[in-house]
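All the exercises in this workshop are built on plain-text protein records. Sequence and backbone structure share a record, each on its own labelled line. The structure tokens are whole numbers drawn from a learned vocabulary of backbone shapes. The record below serves as our worked example for the rest of this section.
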Amino acid sequence: MKVVSNASVLIALSSIGMLSLLRERFPESIAVPEAVWREVVDEGAERPGAHEVSKANWIKVHKVNDKGMVGLLRAELDEGEAESIALAHEVLADVVLLDERDARHAAMRMSLNVLGTVGILLWGKQTGKLVNLTEALDALRFQGKFRISQRLYEQVLLEAGE
């Protein structure tokens, strides 16, 4: 399965000590474009996710070839989001990992399958890899400073049976 990730999912899961869920969900590897690697590892050296991502040998950096597509996407998205979507399109990814609403909408307009941090946590709960989704979501909100609407929070907990 081909998977491309933006920075937000890597940072969010790292901030609550759950980056390993990505490895369990996508055991082959996860591709990140150069802009995401720079954002998380190089420029974000002192922030959550930097160390974990830099040591994760299953996260592979890829160069985006279609700079025209990146340029078009940059009209509404940041560099990492634009490169993630362009790379997912180039490699015919099965899934692109994105959290931001505008990026998710742009990816879906291109018929890409999108999954976010909350979806990864829900998968973890549904497969028994995560015991308490409420605790994970609360940690994400308060420890990871991750914004989740109350509606999504309640919907995901209902779906998980919590």
Summary: The CA atoms of residues 3 and 113 lie 10 Å apart. The first strand starts at residue 3 and ends at 5. The radius of gyration is 15 Å. The chain has a mean pLDDT of 94.
